[in-house]
């Protein structure tokens, strides 16, 4: 496979695969996602030399703005993301790729001629990125189609969340599929673009050591935690209708679960990986109301201290100060198949927790018989740290040196990314945007995956409703509600790091 040469830079960049010339239209081009993620990601790929000359980035939104205005908007976004690495001369070059088209894509009377005029017939890849509310996806796809802008090589990118339950997800999928074939639809879950999440597959399938112990015979349980220290970040309107279960578990945590538990795919090609992931979703144990009451916890943060600073409680961040929305969820589930039967999978995510920390912990079983008498031995544990301080630690038992009896310690074999690699980690969106242009669907969700995840989540929500499961308070800056620790204690276990 051809790889591009590295430009000389202080920080080495990772190798990359060249992509075809492309034009990307970002609907919602002036929104938060474009500002925080998409424009900075495209700028970075351009800086690293991956964006072919002649490619174009066209922002589109209702906002009445000209191209100069959009360039100024994009500059602020990219400058903020680049910090000290900012070079004005680079920006001047990159800015030539940018264009803007004011358009209400959902207005049936809107005139699409100008946008059409900006798109070239000779550019091989055309991408429509829908960074808008999911409620608008079908309408926008319909309008793009009626404007005659869909070529066989056009791709559409849909941001999460695809719907708010199974029915609305099906409606969106059905609607979008009326205009695009499944192979043209890229449903983003940005966790799949994270370096460490991709490393999960390498760790599992490029190391012979893992597979023999990656199953019910050797694994006691698995924990997946995605903890955030941030609160609502100005997204109260969206978040209060969504909550942690829909916002994080339906997509990011279930995707992590799938990659941890799936069978080895035959290849890394799009459908091989996705087919293995859906088998995991289909094997997830369904919740009855009684099981949900026992095996899940809903929490909501109150005021507290995060990283030494006082922060407001969730309700104080809302306009009307009332809500039953969960900002924390802990769930115990099982995967009902031969590999995992009887192995609990504990999932946990929350906002305003003590620190930002995502990890997957594979807790192995103790040795079957200890020959060390009274010396305490612990079971092996593999901790995959997804962010921050990315790395993998395998806790093994070793003899503490010195006389006076045999003492055994559990210490990690530590594989830290920072200590081993000096390359910059690209943001997940950089990888995913270039995968869209390359036509590589492997890291995007297929329709059936999204729907299977919603089916499972819907059942849990119904169970919560039936049992009227209330949110339990936890102080901002803590590890979540007490019941989350109690759920583990009941199984004689503890959350890792607590
Ligand atoms: C988004 C959620 O999908 O992921 C946010 O909507 C959350 O609520 C974010 O903060 C977390 O992403 P990351 O990459 O910061 O872990």
Characterization of this structure:
By secondary structure, the chain is of the alpha/beta class. The protein has two domains: 22-159, 3-Layer(aba) Sandwich (Rossmann fold); 192-425 and 448-489, Dihydrodipicolinate Reductase, domain 2 (2-Layer Sandwich), CATH 3.30.360.10. The chain is 35% helix and 21% strand. The chain contains 15 helices and 17 strands. The protein has helices spanning 32-47, 67-82, 88-95, 113-118, 137-146, 166-177, 195-205, 236-261, 270-283, 289-295, 314-317, 417-420, 428-438, 447-467, 482-490; strands spanning 22-27, 56-61, 98-102, 125-130, 154-158, 185-187, 219-227, 296-302, 304-306, 309-311, 328-334, 344-350, 357-364, 381-387, 391-399, 408-416, 472-475. The chain has a nine-stranded mixed sheet with strand order 16-15-14-13-7-12-11-8-17, with helices on both faces. Strands 3-2-1-4-5-6 form a six-stranded parallel sheet. α1 (32-47) crosses α13 (428-438). The longest helix has 26 residues, at 236-261. The chain is globular and about 80 Å long. It starts with 21 loop residues before the first strand and ends in an 8-residue tail after the last helix. Bound molecules: 6-O-phosphono-beta-D-glucopyranose. Residues 228, 247 line the site of 6-O-phosphono-beta-D-glucopyranose.
Using brief descriptors, characterize the structure shown.
498 residues; alpha/beta; Rossmann fold; Dihydrodipicolinate Reductase, domain 2; 2 domains; nine-stranded mixed beta sheet; six-stranded parallel beta sheet; 15 helices; disordered N terminus; binds 6-O-phosphono-beta-D-glucopyranose
